[in-house]
Design brief:
Helix 4 packs across helix 5. The protein contains nine helices and eight strands. By secondary structure, it is α/β, with parallel strands linked by helices. The chain has an eight-stranded parallel sheet. The structure holds pyridoxal-5'-phosphate.
Length: about 220
């Protein structure tokens, strides 16, 4: 299947899930996750009208995106992987959205860099809904105090919450928890759902779904 045909399939499924959930058509944003794929295949998605993309590594994105961004003005690039403080300057320069704000230190670095670069990014706080030791994200019960810190001490506007449920669990309860936390904290955006479960995520309130392999095919990590 081609990237454009895959995109059409995913877009149609999103529209169906929106309709089934009584959501306005076009409310859910499709973040096309292009990690590990080269600029050539990304161009196929751009040609098919896709403008919102996700990458999980700053360094990989730095090698791929500046040229594409120069050629296409309305790309919206999301960082969906963990951010180290020594990459904060590069991330703020390259990305439009950071979905993985997950600790005070990185929130401070982002605030500092946005001021220094006079650039305002949309920000999501990542929540570790499964309480997994190896996974990034704040604990669900820390959501309110962490949002208060971002807002009151750092002057950051947080647009929404993001989660990656444990791979071996039914994602539904994690999606429901993230949506509940977003509602309780007055946040409009909820980033959840990947290739295998984005329709479930939309049914449970996702506004941003991050879909990779269903659009670009399987990833090859061997090279
Ligand atoms: C890779 C990745 C995705 C996309 O995963 P697919 O299963 O290929 O759709 C979504 N979110 C994050 C955070 C990822 O790292």
């Amino acid at each position: 299947m081609s990237v454009s045909a895959n995109l059409e399939t995913v877009r149609a499924a999103i529209r169906r899930a929106e309709a089934a959930g009584g959501r306005p058509e076009g409310e859910v944003r499709l973040v096309a996750v292009s990690k590990t794929h080269g600029a050539e295949i990304v161009r196929e998605a751009l040609d098919a009208g896709q403008r919102i993309f996700g990458e999980n590594r700053v360094q990989e994105a730095q090698g791929k995106w500046p040229e594409l961004q120069a050629a296409c003005a309305d790309i919206e690039l999301h960082l969906i992987g963990p951010l180290q403080s020594n990459k904060a300057a590069a991330a703020v320069a390259l990305f439009d959205v950071i979905e993985t704000v997950d600790r005070e230190k990185i929130a401070r670095e982002i605030a500092k860099e946005m001021a220094a670069q006079q650039k305002s990014l949309q920000l999501f706080v990542q929540v570790n809904t499964g309480g997994e030791a190896q996974k990034a994200g704040i604990a669900p019960e820390d959501t309110r105090p962490f949002l208060a810190l971002c807002r009151d001490e750092l002057g950051l506007t947080i647009s929404g919450l993001m989660c990656i449920p444990p791979v071996d669990e039914n994602p539904g309860p994690h999606f429901a928890l993230l949506k509940k936390l977003a509602d309780e904290n007055g946040l409009a955006r909820v980033s959840m759902g990947m290739s295998g479960d984005y329709e479930t995520a939309i049914a449970l309130g996702a506004t941003d779904v991050r879909v990779g392999s269903a659009i670009f095919g399987a990833r090859d990590y061997s090279g």
